[in-house]
């Protein structure tokens, strides 16, 4: 079976199985990855903002909606969210605002942690913040995530 590399764009939520790989590029956006070590299933959401300004239909651009969409994929595969391993990436302060806590990246990091905490799920690892972009690749066969930091001059 050949490896398929699936590229996620901002607002995308994708779920697949081994040997597929999920790939994305992050700045202030944030990715929550989920991997099921027994079934070799997993997914990723790449959200832009913590929540919508108004009530709308579920939209992967927003953290809570993106995670709910990811959980729907888990259910469609007859698995439960507590069976997965979670990691979070991104939330950079690319524009280098002077008020760190008000940056979009900081708000996205906080939102991701709250989303998982509210669902009673733990984060195994995080690589968040900073002032650089990240390319991340989730290998659904191993659960390994490869991260490349991209420095901005």
Automatic annotation (TrEMBL):
Its EC number is 3.5.1.44. The keyword Disulfide bond does not apply. It catalyses: L-glutaminyl-[protein] + H2O = L-glutamyl-[protein] + NH4(+). One of its GO terms (molecular function) is protein-glutamine glutaminase activity. One of its GO terms (biological process) is chemotaxis. InterPro entries: CheD-like_sf (IPR038592), Chemorcpt_Glu_NH3ase_CheD (IPR005659), Cytotoxic_necrot_fac-like_cat (IPR011324). Gene3D superfamilies: 3.30.1330.200. Keywords: Chemotaxis, Hydrolase. It holds the Pfam family CheD. Belongs to the CheD family. Probably deamidates glutamine residues to glutamate on methyl-accepting chemotaxis receptors (MCPs), playing an important role in chemotaxis. HAMAP family: CheD. This is Probable chemoreceptor glutamine deamidase CheD. The lineage of its organism: Bacteria, Pseudomonadati, Pseudomonadota, Betaproteobacteria, Neisseriales. The gene is cheD.
